[in-house]
């Protein structure tokens, strides 16, 4: 499902012919959870608790025209660190991410810092509650010449440039007993997670752009993110196979989506199913309320960087996905996505 992480709503007289807005790695958001919830833990960290540093590079593009150079494009660079504290029961994570996004007439460069506290809820440490905050800003360029109006209206030659403060907050619960079930065969929940978050938490309506024909202002997004992991048909490479179902739901006040039904609602959703073959190979599919079907495939590489006390020194994760529209001409462009993650001690 393609949405923007920049939390901007567009209102244009005559209805503009703009492509769908995007979310970086929307079909593989587990590796970029912080785009939805500042309190969430990176998926690579879940896969290997010993890694202290995580770097993700991701990108996607949607084919709207015949020219790749003008199609929507999102690039994301993200770093996270999980330092050791004197009190081992309490953990924190800190990091930063940069997002470069091009969406028709709008180009955005975003920078955010991230900080979250991870609190244990039981002695075993299998249940945690995280509270996180993103703070930063984004620079936005709006080129009116690149806007096409359905009414045939002649676009303005004006260009707008602005810097917008950006604040997001979230809370994230997680149950995880996968470490104790690497070779077990009994059925049961291996992991369960759920989180609530608000993006563009502080509204700054005075920095909106209003030309009379074109209106842009930051708008708050509310997200619900949840998922569950259970065993699935035996083992692969001596590691348990699992199946993960997950979804996220987005609510934007005063904005209606005409998606799966004729009557628009201020809610959009995305559902996903992923099969993990041990810790090595994974693949999945999903469907969003914008009628985009997506498929994904990925691989995790480790044990290739040498050993330190029996533990591999680094972990590499590579994922790709392809999305295609179903039944809605406005979202006619296929979407190509890739993510590369690198984790080390």
CATH superfamily: monomeric porin ompg
Mean pLDDT: 77
Q: What's the total helix number?
A: 1
Major sheet summary line: 14 strands, antiparallel, barrel
Radius of gyration: 21 Å
Which CATH architecture would you pick?
Answer: Beta Barrel
And the CATH topology? Answer: Porin
Helix percentage range: under 10%
**What class, by secondary structure content?**
mainly beta
Contiguous low-pLDDT stretches (5 residues minimum) are 1-22, 258-262, 304-310
* The CATH C-level class name: Mainly Beta
Shape: globular
Strand content: over 45%
Amino- and carboxy-terminal Cα gap: 34 Å
Number of strands: 19
Description:
The protein is mainly β and 345 residues long. The chain has one domain: Porin, CATH 2.40.160.40. It is 1% helix and 54% strand. The chain contains 1 helix and 19 strands. The protein has one helix at 43-47, and strands at residues 8-12, 53-62, 73-81, 91-103, 106-120, 127-143, 159-176, 191-199, 209-210, 214-218, 221-236, 239-251, 267-277, 281-288, 292-301, 307-308, 311-312, 314-325, 335-344. A 14-stranded antiparallel beta barrel has the order 2-3-4-5-6-7-8-11-12-13-14-15-18-19. It has a 3-stranded antiparallel beta sheet with strand order 1-10-9, with no helix packed on it. Strands 16-17 form a two-stranded antiparallel ribbon. Strand 16 (307-308) and strand 17 form a beta hairpin. The longest helix is centred in the N-terminal third of the chain and has 5 residues, at 43-47.
Could you name the key traits of this structure?
mainly beta, Porin, three-stranded antiparallel sheet, about 55% strand, globular, disordered N terminus
């Amino acid at each position: 499902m393609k949405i923007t992480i920049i939390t901007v709503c567009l209102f244009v007289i005559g209805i503009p012919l703009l492509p769908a807005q995007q979310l970086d790695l929307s079909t593989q958001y587990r590796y970029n959870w912080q785009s939805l919830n500042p309190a969430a833990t990176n998926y690579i960290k879940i896969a290997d608790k010993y890694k202290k540093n995580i770097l993700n590079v991701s990108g996607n593009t949607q084919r709207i025209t015949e020219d790749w150079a003008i199609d929507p494009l999102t690039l994301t660079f993200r770093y996270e660190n999980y330092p050791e504290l004197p009190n081992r029961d309490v953990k924190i994570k800190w990091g930063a991410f940069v997002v470069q996004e091009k969406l028709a007439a709008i180009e955005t460069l975003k920078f955010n810092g991230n900080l979250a506290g991870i609190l244990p809820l039981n002695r075993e440490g299998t249940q945690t509650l995280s509270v996180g905050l993103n703070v930063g800003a984004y620079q936005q360029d709006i080129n009116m010449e690149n806007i096409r109006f359905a009414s045939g209206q002649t676009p303005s030659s004006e260009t707008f440039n602005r810097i917008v403060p950006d604040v997001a907050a979230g809370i994230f619960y997680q149950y995880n007993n996968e470490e104790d079930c690497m070779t077990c065969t009994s059925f049961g929940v291996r992991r369960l997670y759920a989180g609530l978050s608000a993006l563009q938490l502080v509204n700054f309506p005075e920095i909106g752009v209003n030309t009379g024909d074109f209106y842009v202002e930051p708008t708050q997004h509310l997200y619900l993110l949840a998922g569950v992991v259970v065993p699935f048909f035996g083992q692969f490479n001596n590691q348990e196979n699992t199946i993960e179902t997950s979804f996220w739901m987005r609510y934007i006040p005063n904005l209606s989506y005409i998606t799966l039904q004729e009557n628009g609602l201020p809610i959009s959703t995305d559902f996903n199913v992923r099969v993990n073959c041990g810790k090595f190979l994974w693949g999945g599919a999903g469907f969003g309320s914008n009628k985009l079907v997506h498929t994904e495939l990925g691989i995790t590489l480790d044990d290739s960087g040498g050993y330190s006390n029996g533990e591999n020194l680094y972990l590499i994760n590579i994922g790709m996905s392809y999305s295609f529209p179903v039944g809605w001409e406005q979202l006619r462009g296929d979407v190509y996505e890739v993510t590369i993650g690198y984790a080390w001690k």
